[in-house]
Every structure is written in C-alpha cells, then in structure tokens.
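Input record (Table S2, row 469):
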Amino acid sequence: MAKKKSKKAKPKRTKAAASKKSKKRAMKASALPALSKLPYGKAGKALDGVRILDLSHVQAGPTCTQMLAWFGADVIKVERPGIGDITRGQLRDVPNADSLYFTMLNHNKRSITLDTKHPKGKEVLDRLVKICDVLVENFGPGVLDRMGYTWEHIHKLNPRMIVASIKGFGPGPYEDCKVYENVAQCAGGAASTTGFREGPPLVTGAQIGDSGNGLHLSIGIITALYQRMRTGRGQRVNIAMQDGVLNLCRVKLRDQQRLKHGPLTEYRQFGESIPFGKAVPRSGNDSGGGQPGWILKCKGWEEDPDAYIYFITQAPVWEAICDVIGKPEWKTHPDYAKPPARLPRLKQIFDTIEQWTMTKTKFEAMEILNKYNIPCGPILSMKDLAEEPSLRKTGTVVEVDHPTRGKYLSVGNPIKLSDSISEVKRSPLLGEHTEEILGKVLGYNAKEIAEIKQSGATSAPETTRAAAA
Ligand code: COA
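Output record (coenzyme A complex):
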C-alpha cells in the first residue's frame, strides 16, 4: 500500500520538464556556464573568466586586448623588463610619465615584466601559457618562433589555447616584412583611393591598419572562443594587416570591377569629362555609395580650417534640398529633377549648394537640414569632440586619472552592451602587477618569487634601464 502511495506521489514527467532536462543536457555538452539570475548590468561582464596572455605591442595588438579587457577579460600584458611596450616612451608629453600613446591603448590591463629569452622567464611564460585562454601577439614575422613559442609548443602546453596574431602580410612575397600603420594603408588599397585625383596618394587619420585590425583580431578571438565551447580545442587566429585594410576598402574593389563596364558615374570626374584610367582613381570627397555627397564650406571657413559640412544629395529629399537652397525650379527642370540627370552636373550642383552653406555656420546648417531629413554632418575637430557633452555622457570620451601623469582624456568603449557595462580603468605602470601575477595567478610562493626576481628574469640590466630613460 505504502509502495503504491509513493508511486502515486511521484510527479509525472511532463513535456515541459523533459524539454528543460534536455536543454540542461545540451548546455552541459557545449560547456556553457549555468544561467545567471542577476538583473541587467549586475551579472558581471561578458568576458568574465577569460584570461588573455598579452604579448602585443605598439597599437594593433593592444587595441584588440584593450577591447577584450573592457568586456571583462583578465588581460595580462607581458613586457620586456626596463623598457616595456615601446610606446610607453614614444611621443611623450609629460616627462617621466607613460605617454598618451601607451595609456590610451592599454586600459584595464595588468602588467608583468618578463624577459622571455631568459630561461627562468621562459619557465614563467610556460606557466602563463598553461593557465590562459588566448595568447595575443603582433611581433614581427618569426619572432614568436625564435622565442621558442611555436604553435606546436604552445598547443602541447595548452591544447585549449587560442593563438591570435597580427602580421603585416599573409603568405606571399611580402610575408617576412615588418609593417606599420601607413604601410598597411598603402598596401591594402586605402592610399591609392584616398585624396584628390590631381594629388598624390594619401593616408587617412583613422588608424584602419592598426586599430582596424585590432578589431578584426578581436572578432576572430571571440569566434574562436565560441567554437572552443564545442570542440574543446584552441586554434590559430591570423590577421594580415593588408587583408584587413582591403576588407575595409571593399567598395573600392567593387568600383575596380565596375570600371570594365563604363565610367564611374557617381565620381565627380565623370561630370568633368575626365577619362578614367585602368585603376580606381582617388575620389576626393565623393561619396562611396549611391547617393552623391561632397564637403562644402560653411560660414567662417576663411579662418577656421574645420568650418565645413558633409552634404549628401539623397534622392528622396531632393525636393526639400531645392527649397532650402533657394532653387525650387530644379525640382522640375529636366537637368536636375532625376538622379541620373544630376550625375554629370555634380560639381555645378555642389558649388550652388555651397553658396547656401557659406551663409550658415556648420551647426546652423546642420540644424536646418536635419529638419528636412537631409543627411549631412559637420566636420568636427578633435577639439569639438573632446568638448562634446553628449560623448562624455555616453562614456565615449572619458577622463581618466593616472598616478604619474594626472588626468587625461581617452576614448572609451564604443561598443555599448546593455548587460556588460564597460568601465575604463587606467593603464598599468610597467611591471606594476609582476608579484601579484607570480603569486596569485601562477601560484609561486614567496621563496620562488624571490628566486625568479633574483635570476634577473623580471628586471632589466642597468644598461637597458639607462637606454630606456
Ligand atoms: N623579453 C625579451 N625579448 C622580447 C620581449 C620580452 N618580453 N618582447 C619582445 N622581445 C624581443 C623579441 O624576441 C624580438 O627579438 P628578436 O628580433 O631578437 O627575435 C624583439 O623584441 C621584437 O621584435 P619585433 O616585433 O620585430 O619588434 P620591432 O620593434 O623590430 O618591430 C613592428 C615592430 C611593429 C614593425 C613589428 O613587430 C611588426 O611588423 N609586427 C607585425 C605587424 C604589426 O602589428 N604592425 C603594427 C604595429 S602597431
């Protein structure tokens, strides 16, 4: 009887319970952590628990690891004793303080000094490899191998390790070349398509080679981390700076192929009857898309080099444009009414619009044009951006305090996640966390730490220190 009773009391396995169980099983199989019950913004950071071994330097690698650190990864930056990342001392504005070049690219990281060519240093690096999830490096070609950290060695030490690298070029004629930002812009097609037709190739202020590829690398790393949940193994993530720049210049390769079928009608030179050559020309301020645009002078341009506005003659608002600039007759005139008719006349059209923009400041013009949904944008200087209150409010421009240089402005995380709020913490001083990492992260005891320090693996010889000063 009792037996019967207990059988009856057992809850029936409903459909919902079964599906909950199978969901749990699936999550276990993919090694996903248990779901958090904490509210939005309180459940830690997106990359909490991910540990990055950061061997990167200068700009490209550090941009990537800074982004991962903002998302919550624990980034351990390994730096050469005495010197550290070369940018600490480059473009210095405050004597004896880390440069803005360094501080603005290395927020939220910890720094350990380690001579990775010293036997004891290698011993420590081996331990770091074993406990980290991702190794990031952008040394020159062959450097990591020469250090003894081949993919095979790393993979043997830690089969789950993701090894993420940036080099200037992929396999091919230039694979052994060292590369900096502007070289990548030139080799990736940006410089040949930037500037004015009658002038030389130009590099852009946006660091598409370095910071652009740092972003490419972070996407690769996060993707590899995601795949590792299913495979349990690490992989290599390789970015060639030339490839990354070409990826950002994709629309220009589009235009290269369009050239075979006739002139590029949205380029000003078409309207000026200047023939196209064999390759995509520099397009000045022409829009890269299907809606013609140009940079136009605004009131005050004679004194202020940034008193300009970008103006797009978007087809759906053409009639509003005609009214605003005082040319209502263009709404029905056969030379102006339809977009194809306007293409050969772009220079004349923009010269006429400029007569109107020159009567307004860039901000006045912006206000008027926005009322009519006419796409436009003021040319903002770095001073304008640094002082813009809305950017401060969103944390895109932040003020950071630093123990040796004082307060400075930086660019915060431009990617806003609603459940993983970024906070910008100052960059580390050289070797600031050496002991902490040796002890708390790698588990060395006090005696062992003293031995490591004694060996010279974490400190620089006098000569190196003097050279870096
Ligand atoms: N301990 C001991 N030695 C260290 C070390 C450490 N912690 N960290 C670096 N080194 C050594 C390396 O072992 C290497 O020595 P080696 O040449 O004897 O093997 C050297 O320092 C670094 O070499 P490299 O990366 O070639 O630096 P570089 O200053 O000569 O060149 C770049 C700089 C940026 C041109 C080059 O690193 C490069 O082409 N990187 C790839 C592309 C890239 O990212 N470019 C953009 C940078 S923003």
